[in-house]
Amino acid sequence: MDVHDAVALLEVAGTEQNRQTYRRHGAGDVQFGVSFKDLRAMARRIGRDDALARGLWATVNADARLLACMVADPNRMTEADLDAWLAEISYYVLVDEFVAGAASQVPGVRERAGRWIASHRDWTAQAGWDLVGAMAMRDPEVPDAYFADRLVEIESGIGEAGNRTRHAMNGALIAIGLRSDALREAAVSAAERIGPVVVDHGQTGCVTPTAAPYIAKTVAYRAAQAAKRAAKVGAAANPAAGAG
Fold first, then answer.
1. CA distance between the termini of the chain
2. Local structure of residue 63 (DSSP, 8 states)
3. Do the Cβ atoms of 14 and 33 come closer than 8 Å?
4. What is residue 238's predicted lDDT score, i.e. its pLDDT?
5. Are 139 and 113 spatial neighbours (Cβ–Cβ below 8 Å)?
6. Distance between CA 202 and CA 204 in Å, rounded?
7. Which residues lie closer than 8 Å to 66 by C-beta, 6 or more apart?
8. Of 27, 29, 35, 30, nearest to 93 (Cα)?
9. What pLDDT does residue 236 have?
10. Interval 168-227: pLDDT, tens
11. What is the DSSP string of 162-225?
12. Are 77 and 54 in contact (CB under 8 A)?
């Protein structure tokens, strides 16, 4: 699939309702309004395609750039590529997708996160903390001590951070709290000292969750799901037990 064909498909898939919604979230006017369901379906059909991703990015269209992040080939992207793409983003949803699809997949994540969270640019620092959250959730090789240090940074800096950076720091705090029992205690304590994190979500229904209860609710949900799975395994192993 070339850029012309991909853009044509995106244009057909867009709706005015989505365009209005995405404008409220900061997407601007250069967009088609394609649902994420449709974007992800397109990305699955395409797979990783470096040339297409770069072509889509060059269009500046918000939907095309989201798709670019989904199909970008991490093996072909350099640190300079990542910095250049991020420097052009001023839409928090695109920051999140850029981190998930590209920046978190290219080697050097820990060093990249450190560089970006030190930035005074809101979108760049948001991306850095998104990376910290991604590492907390997905990278077992990173030691807990690294995340303990990030908790200190979050607690000391979240009050003065940029709007979207605050939201990403809160998300990283939650992710760290869900990584291990030891980090959970430290994260909840930090969250309680921080208190409510105020983020301006504009004219949207989005909210920034309060970290401590969110962590507790997620832990309880995971425990309930694990108990259900264990019960199913037990029932399968001993079907006679439930035959009474």
1. 59
2. H
3. yes
4. 78
5. no
6. 6
7. 34, 36, 39, 93, 94, 97
8. 27
9. 81
10. 999 999 999 999 998 999 999 999 999 999 999 999 999 999 999 999 999 999 999 999
11. -HHHHHHHHHHHHHHHTT-HHHHHHHHHHHHHH-PPP----SSS-----HHHHHHHHHHHHHHH
12. no
- For the chain, give the mean pLDDT: 95
Name which of 30-39, 63-72, 226-235 the model is least confident about: 226-235
CB 187 within 8 Å of CB 177: yes
Q: What amino acid occupies position 115?
A: R
How far is C-alpha 162 from the geometric centre of its chain's CA atoms?
17
Predicted TM-score (pTM) of this structure: 0.92
Residues 46-61 have pLDDT tens digits of 999 999 999 999 999 9
User: In a 3-state reduction of DSSP, which class is residue 143?
Assistant: coil
How far lies 193's CA from each of 158, 160, 169, 219, in Å?
12, 15, 15, 20
Q: Would you place residue 242 in the very low, low, confident or very high pLDDT band (cuts 50, 70, 90)?
A: low
Say if residues 106 and 74 touch (Cβ distance below 8 Å). Answer: yes
Determine which of 21-25, 156-160, 229-233 has the lowest per-residue pLDDT on average.
229-233
Interior CA angle at 100 toward 10 and 199, to 5°? Answer: 95
Neighbours of 199 (CB within 10 A): 19
